[in-house]
Amino acid sequence: MCVTTTESALGLLQSLARYRRRWPAETEVVTGFEALLADPQDPFERARLAGHFTASAWLVDRSGTRVLLTHHRKLERWLQLGGHADGDRDLARVALREAQEESGLPDLRVEPELFDLDRHWIPERGEVPGHWHYDARYIVRAGEDERYVVGEESHDLAWRDIAGIASDPDADVSLRRMALKWLERAFL
Fold it and tell me: What is the pLDDT at residue 5?
């Protein structure tokens, strides 16, 4: 069965259409995600080395002013939590699972609508050649307990001020974009 005929793929296509309407300046990125979704080689599996889907969590604290970031062990950068779909076609569920696994936080909740999209290059590492990640990002909200546990994929985790990320010219470009989107959303 072609990937695009599955119910979850149709849901992702609809979510991408809503995202395009909300963020028209990002139409080119959305088009790339749609093309990947239509590819007959399963884009939800990391074995598709030309590129595949990943999902990330914009994990915000109860106050909505901080986001939990990881100092990623392999990439040596501060980033949002996330990882490979590994066959799971529900990318919101993937983002939630990755947030839970990488933070150890209980009682997390995911918002099902796409928050951000990002296509980025992952450099060669060992036997795995360089490849593209098509990262679907979702808002994940922390519960009452915000005490995280640093796992093996991270050098460290830290709650960071979202407004500070938005105004930091040295912050990762996609982190700044998400911080600005979050701040804009707060005023809607």
Answer: 45
Q: Could you give the number of structural domains in the chain?
A: 1
Q: What CATH number has the domain bearing residue 84? A: 3.90.79.10
For residue 78, give its domain range.
3-186
Q: How far is CA 167 from CA 8, 144, 170, 172, 186, in A?
A: 36, 28, 9, 11, 16
Per residue in 70-87, pLDDT (tens digit) is 987 666 778 899 999 999
Strands (E), the chain: 52-60, 66-72, 78-84, 109-122, 131-141, 154-161
Report yes or no: 115 and 90 within 8 Å, Cβ to Cβ. no
- Phi first, then psi: give them for residue 27, nearest 5 degrees: -55, -40
Asked if 70 and 156 count as a contact pair (C-beta separation under 8 A), the reply is: yes
> In sequence order, which residues have a C-beta less than 8 Å from that of residue 134 and are 6 or more positions away?
32, 33, 36, 43, 51, 52, 53, 54, 117, 119
State the Cα torsion 172-177-180-181 to the nearest 10°: -140
For residue 154, the one-letter residue type is S
Model pLDDT, residue 73: 66
Q: Report helix, strand and coil shares of the chain as percent, to nearest 5.
A: 35, 30, 35
